[in-house]
Amino acid sequence: MPTYTYRCPVCGPFDLVRRMADAAAAADCPGCGRDGRRVFGAPALRGLDDGLRRALDAGERSADRPDVVGAVPGRSRRATPVTRDPRHAKLPRP
Ligand SMILES: [Zn+2]
Q1: Alpha carbon of 32 to ligand 1 centroid (Å)
Q2: DSSP class of residue 12?
Q3: Which residues lie at CB < 5 A from ion ligand 1?
Q4: Does the residue 20 lie in any domain?
Q5: Where in this chain does the record put each Putative regulatory protein FmdB zinc ribbon domain (predicted)?
Q6: Which residue has the higher pLDDT, 32 or 93?
Q7: Would residue 53 count as lying in a domain?
């Protein structure tokens, strides 16, 4: 069963393991017994392996701060060879 976070108006947040069908209902605070309302937060990503977690973090970071690149990724940085031979100017271009 998943763990949900609720907030008691007096005691603050508390976690509760309960069925998904019962997640929306108010939960009794373990400290004072008052009704606690569900709090929505970031999902727990404990079960992910490191590679997937890094990829998700990088994707999240790049959403508002994309990396600035100086060249098209995947191409070499070598300059295109330039020729001075006038016959090469008559060759077909891609
Ligand atoms: Zn309470």
Answers
A1: 4
A2: E
A3: 8, 10-11, 29, 31-32, 34
A4: yes
A5: 1-41
A6: 32
A7: yes
